[in-house]
Structures are given as C-alpha cells and as structure tokens.
C-alpha cells in the first residue's frame, strides 16, 4: 500500500500590505504552484503574467507542476474570462486549465479533483528537495540503513 501523502497549501494574500512581509516565506521550498484567477474579473486574469514572473524571480524551477484555475464559474452571467481565452493562455504556459466554483460544489471541476490532479503530478515529478539551503534549525532525518528503494514523493 502506498503511504499517505500530505500537501501543505499556502494561499498568497492578494493585498500588497501582507505580501511585502510574507512573500519570501511563500517561495521557500515550493514544489508546485496553483495560479487562480477570478472568472468574473478580467483584471485578475491579466495579472497572471506578473504572478508567473514573480515565480521566476524567486527561482522556482520552470518544470515544477503548475496548474491554472478559474474560480467563480457559478456566476455565469458575470463571466468576463471566456474559456477559450483562458485555454490559450494555459496552453502557452503548458499548464492544465480547470474552471471551478469554490462556492458551489456542483459546478464544473471539483476543487478536490483539482488537488488530486496536482497530487498525482507531484508524485510523478522528479525530486525537488533542497532547492534551497536547509534552515539551520531544520531537523535532519538519518536515512534508513538499507533502503530498498528511494521515494521522493
Ligand atoms: N460566487 C462565488 N463567490 C466566491 C467564490 N469563491 C470565493 N467567492 C467569494 O469571493 C469573495 C472573496 O473571497 P476570498 O476567498 O476572500 O478571495 P481571495 O482571493 O482569497 O482574496 P484575498 O484575501 O484578497 O487574497 C468572498 O465573498 C467569497 O465568498 C466562488 O467560487 N463563487
């Protein structure tokens, strides 16, 4: 039986006053990124390139799993970001696109399914451990004396 996997999620604050103090913490040892835009707010879609750029600036590897999520698809009459536009953007940046509603679980892709996809991507992804120097107070775990197989996921 495969061991349980644990995913830790960091929701980056949209507000600048929080971002200034928090931003360094967000990018430490990141193994995957979920870019979320508001389907009813074209400005949130247009800000995606700057988020992608920010990830680059913080030296996140280009090949770590990244997915694009359009939220609030339940607000059909207020949609400003058409699916084909978002899909083109996702294709350009080699990301899968999901459209969902955090509010209405019956709408489109379920949030759980999105994170399951991400978990599968992470499992099949090559190791990214120690992309940054370890913290001084980090606990080091001694390896098993005779490992049968190394698993990084
Ligand atoms: N209709 C609808 N409303 C949503 C959905 N997701 C979030 N909301 C609403 O949108 C508002 C903002 O939600 P937040 O979760 O605070 O958004 P946020 O992006 O985390 O905001 P920041 O704190 O600025 O990062 C709230 O009133 C939510 O109830 C959705 O899928 N559908």
TrEMBL record:
InterPro entries: P-loop_NTPase, Small_GTP-bd, Small_GTPase. GO terms for molecular function: GTP binding; GTPase activity. Keywords: GTP-binding, Nucleotide-binding. SMART domains: RAB (SM00175), RAS (SM00173), RHO (SM00174). Belongs to the small GTPase superfamily. Rab family. This is Ras-related protein rab-33b.
């Amino acid at each position: 039986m495969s061991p349980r996997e644990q995913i830790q999620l960091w929701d980056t604050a949209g507000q600048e006053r929080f971002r200034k103090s928090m931003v360094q913490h967000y990018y430490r040892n990141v193994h995957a990124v979920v870019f979320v835009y508001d389907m009813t707010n074209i400005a949130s879609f247009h800000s995606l390139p700057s988020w992608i750029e920010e990830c680059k600036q913080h030296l996140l590897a280009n090949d770590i799993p990244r997915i694009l999520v359009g939220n609030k698809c339940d607000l059909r009459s207020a949609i400003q970001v058409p699916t084909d536009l978002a899909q083109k953007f996702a294709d350009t940046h080699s990301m899968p696109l999901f459209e969902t509603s955090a509010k209405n679980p019956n709408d489109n892709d379920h949030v759980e399914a999105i994170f399951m996809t991400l978990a599968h991507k992470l499992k099949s992804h090559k190791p990214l451990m120690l992309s940054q120097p370890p913290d001084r107070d980090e606990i080091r775990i001694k390896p098993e004396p005779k490992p049968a197989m190394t698993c990084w996921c």
